[in-house]
Specification:
Pfam families: GcpE, GcpE_C. Belongs to the IspG family. It catalyses: (2E)-4-hydroxy-3-methylbut-2-enyl diphosphate + oxidized [flavodoxin] + H2O + 2 H(+) = 2-C-methyl-D-erythritol 2,4-cyclic diphosphate + reduced [flavodoxin]. It comes from Peptoniphilus faecalis. The protein is α/β, with parallel strands linked by helices. The chain has two domains: about 10-250, TIM Barrel; about 260-350, Sulfite Reductase Hemoprotein, domain 1 (2-Layer Sandwich). Helix content is about 40%, strand content about 20%. The protein is built from twelve helices and 15 strands. Strand 13 (about 315) and strand 14 form a beta hairpin. Helix 2 runs parallel beside helix 3 and helix 8 runs parallel beside helix 9. It starts with 9 loop residues before the first strand and ends with a helix. About 45% of the residues are buried.
C-alpha cells in the first residue's frame, strides 16, 4: 500500500490534482495548435487511450483563439504552454484554457505577472511552474555550484514565490531532468519544501526504447514513495505511446486499474507456440478495451494457470492445444488455432 504525501488540491477543468485525487495522465500535442482539425484528431486518440489532461503549445494569438474551438470537440481539459509572452497567457485564459503552463520569471516586469495572475484568478484556472535541468537561473547555478537538486529546487521555488507575492496559490510544480537520479533527488527534496501538487516526468527521456525505461524508473520510484500527483512520460514519438506507457506505470504500482493489465511469461523450451507474436496480437486488440481485467498469456499448460492464478482470465498454451483459465481454475481446453478467438470471446462476456 502506497501512502501518498498530502498536497494541495487544485483543478484543471473537472480533473482534480493533488489531495486525495487519482494520479492523472498528461500528454502534449505535437500538431500545429491552430490546425484545429489535426489537433482535435490527435487529442481524441489520446482520450481513447486514457489521457486525462492535454497540453498544447500556444505560440501566437491564432493558437490561443483555436483553444475555444478545440474545446468544443474534446472531452479532456487543456493546459496552454506559454514561453515568454504574457499576452498569450491572458489570451489563452480568455479562450477557455483550463490551466496555464509558464514561469512568471520569464515574462518580465512585475505588472505583466500581475496581469497574468489576475486573469487566471478571474477565470479560476491554475498555473504550473517549474524548471528542468537546462533552465535553472544562473544565480542558483553559481550559488550551488552547478546543476543539482538544490539549484533546481530553489529555482522552482522562486517561481512559486513570485506567484504567491501576487496572491496566487493555485499552483502545480515540475522539476525535471534528463538524469533519472537527479530527477528523483529533486522531487524528493522539493516535496519536503512544499505542499503544492507535483507534476512528475523525466524530461528529454528519448525514444520509446530507452525513454520508457527511464520514465518508469524515475516516475515509478517517486510514486512508490508517495510523491507525485500527475505524470507525463515524455517520448520522442507519437504522444499515444506516452499515454500507454503512463497507464502501464500506474497499473504496475496498482495506482490505477482502468483497462486491461496484460501479463505473459518470458517463454522457455517448454513453449510450443509463437507466444511472442500471440502476446503482441492480444496486446494490440486489448489496449483500448474499457474493462478492468488482468489477462494472462502463458506458454506452458503445466505451470501457466498456477503462475497466473491472480488473472481474471487467461490462456496457457500446450502442443497443438491450450487451456483457458480464470483465477487459476481451468474453464476449457481449446485447439491452438482457436485459442485467441476463444479468449477474446470470454473477455467480452465478462462484465
Amino acid at each position: 500500500m502506497i501512502n501518498r504525501k498530502e498536497t494541495k488540491k487544485i483543478y484543471v477543468g473537472d480533473v482534480s490534482i493533488g489531495g486525495d485525487s487519482f494520479i492523472s495522465i498528461q500528454s502534449m500535442t505535437n500538431t500545429n495548435t491552430k490546425d484545429v482539425k489535426s489537433t482535435v484528431s490527435q487529442i481524441k486518440r489520446l482520450e481513447d487511450a486514457g489521457c486525462d489532461i492535454i497540453r498544447m503549445a500556444v505560440n501566437d494569438l491564432e493558437d490561443a483563439a483555436a483553444i475555444k474551438k478545440i474545446k468544443k470537440e474534446i472531452k479532456i481539459p487543456i493546459i496552454s504552454d506559454i514561453q515568454f509572452d504574457y499576452k498569450l497567457a491572458i489570451a489563452a485564459a480568455e479562450n477557455e484554457s483550463d490551466a496555464i503552463r509558464l514561469n512568471p520569471g520569464n515574462i518580465g516586469a512585475s505588472w505583466k505577472i500581475k496581469e497574468v495572475t489576475e486573469s487566471c484568478k478571474f477565470h479560476n484556472i491554475p498555473i504550473r511552474v517549474g524548471v528542468n535541468s537546462g533552465s535553472i537561473k544562473q544565480e542558483f547555478l553559481d550559488k550551488f555550484k552547478g546543476v543539482n537538486a538544490s539549484s533546481i529546487c530553489l529555482s522552482a521555488m522562486e517561481e512559486v514565490e513570485i506567484l504567491e507575492k501576487n496572491n496566487f496559490f493555485d499552483i502545480a510544480v515540475s522539476l525535471k531532468a534528463s538524469s533519472v537520479n537527479l530527477t528523483i533527488e529533486s522531487y524528493r527534496k522539493f516535496s519536503q519544501m512544499s505542499k503544492y501538487p507535483l507534476h512528475l516526468g523525466v524530461t528529454e527521456a528519448g525514444t520509446p526504447k530507452k525513454g520508457i525505461i527511464k520514465s518508469a524508473i524515475g516516475i515509478g520510484t517517486l510514486l512508490s514513495e508517495g510523491i507525485g500527483d500527475t505524470i507525463r512520460v515524455s517520448l520522442t514519438s507519437d504522444p499515444l505511446e506516452e499515454v500507454i506507457a503512463a497507464k502501464d506505470i500506474l497499473k504496475a504500482l496498482d495506482l490505477r486499474r482502468e483497462g486491461i493489465d496484460l501479463i505473459s511469461c518470458p517463454t522457455c523450451a517448454r513453449t510450443k507456440v509463437n507466444l511472442i507474436e500471440m502476446v503482441k496480437t492480444v496486446e494490440d486488440k486489448l489496449y483500448t478495451m474499457d474493462k478492468n481485467l488482468k489477462v494472462a498469456i502463458m506458454g506452458c499448460a503445466v505451470n501457466g494457470p498456477g503462475e497466473a492464478r491472480e488473472a481474471d482470465i487467461g490462456i496457457a498454451c500446450g502442443n497443438g492445444e491450450g487451456l483457458i483459465f480464470s483465477k487459476g481454475k481451468i474453464i476449457k481446453k481449446v485447439p491452438e488455432d482457436k485459442l485467441l478467438s476463444e479468449l477474446l470471446q470470454e473477455i467480452e462476456k465478462i462484465r
